[in-house]
Amino acid sequence: MSAEAQATLAEFVSEPAPDFDASGLCVTTPRFRLRNKSRAQAREWYWNEYDRDSYECPTCGGDGPFDVHHRDGDPLNNHPLNLVAICWLCHKSEHRRRRAVQRVQDWKDDYSDIIEVDA
Ligand SMILES: [Zn+2]
Ligand SMILES: [Zn+2]
């Protein structure tokens, strides 16, 4: 794996960096820890349920490495139907796609505030 790919992977699979205040104290919220715990549980459940060695990415057929993705975007929702392991590349593009969709939605929302439509 290239250094660039490795860096991208590290950035993507790592949890968001904890925040530190000016005095250097970690001000990470309990919610941040809760999400990490929930993600860990999701991974544990998923790889108990599925065979990691023979697993193929349902999106591209690749052989990983895999991330366990929350379909609804909520890392606290570990319902089995909400979890799917996809390879890190597909995971990355899935979240990129979602952000793009969200941007369009935000834009539409803003736009509808500006424009008054006469019926
Ligand atoms: Zn894939
Ligand atoms: Zn995801």
Name the poorly predicted regions. Answer: none
Count every beta strand, where a strand is a DSSP E run of 2 or more residues: 2
Bound molecules: zinc ion
**End-to-end separation:** 57 Å
Task: Characterise the protein shown here.
The chain is mainly alpha-helical and 119 residues long. It has one domain (3-114). The protein is built from 3 helices and 2 strands. Strands 1-2 form a two-stranded antiparallel sheet. It binds zinc ion (2 copies). One zinc ion (ZN) binds at residues 57, 59-60, 62, 86-87, 89-90.
Keywords:
119 residues; binds zinc ion; two-stranded antiparallel sheet; 8% strand; mainly alpha
